[in-house]
Amino acid sequence: xxxxxxxxxxxxxxxxxxxxxxxxxxxxxxxxxxxxxxxxxxxxxxxxxxxxxxxxxxxxxxxxxxxxxxxxxxxxxxxxxxxxxxxxxxxxxxxxxxxxxxxxxxxxxxxxxxxxxxxxxxxxxxxxxxxxxxxxxxxxxxxxxxxxxxxxxxxxx
Length: 157
Description:
2 helices, rod-shaped
């Protein structure tokens, strides 16, 4: 004969009628009461939740790996694109200054002398090579030009 499998979504008692047909065509019927155990149903639901959490965890790990690789591979490009946001103006002192954390300013070929920014002389150093101060009126334009020279892209078209 055939073996059939029944699944029950909710716990409870179910009335099941079993019908068996013999090779001569005679039918035998028997009704039985089946009780679906709530613990078994609960365990199946928990397994599904665990599987969802597992795949979600793998997805998060994949995203974090992609983010880290993007930062590692394109960090110089990202730094130059964000350079414009690192140029700030102090209104009280009317001094323009540039600050780039954790970066040697010599990497940008930008130096400071006599209250002017100098972009081409790598031998002139500042006291704090991570901060440059100056009264240059057009510092934003000069920084944009520096970005263009380094990356070939204009920040302000």
